[in-house]
Amino acid sequence: MKEQWKVIAIIMLLILVVVFALQNTNVVGIDFFFTQFEVSLVLVVLFSILVGVIIGMIASMSAIQSNRKKNKELEKQLSKEKHNHSNTAIEKDATIAELRSKIEEQERVSRNTISVEAEEKPELNEDVATDTTEEV
Description:
- The longest helix has 95 residues, at 41-135.
- Strands 1-2 form a two-stranded antiparallel sheet.
- By secondary structure, the protein is mainly alpha-helical.
- It is 86% helix and 9% strand.
- It is rod-shaped.
């Protein structure tokens, strides 16, 4: 859709240029330094527009180069930040893995402690039972 608008705009501009050329066919005298010549008015106007466009393009080249330079610097900075972010993510992943292994170790120790306590409790109950029967 965007391309169609460009084509339509170009066609309309060309129609305007043709209409302008047909309406300005008068011959005008041009004095340029030490020479004089006569040319159609439309050629003078179109040549002036062309020269203006060329001067504008040359003038904007420095801005374009400056923007390209800034763009390269920003791309380098972005690449550096991506690398730093990647390294930070790797470090955090390693820390998370280490903490998970510590949690698993703590859970194993806790299970072993619970199972040892469970094994010791019946023995305590038997000792208490034998003590009470001996007293009777």
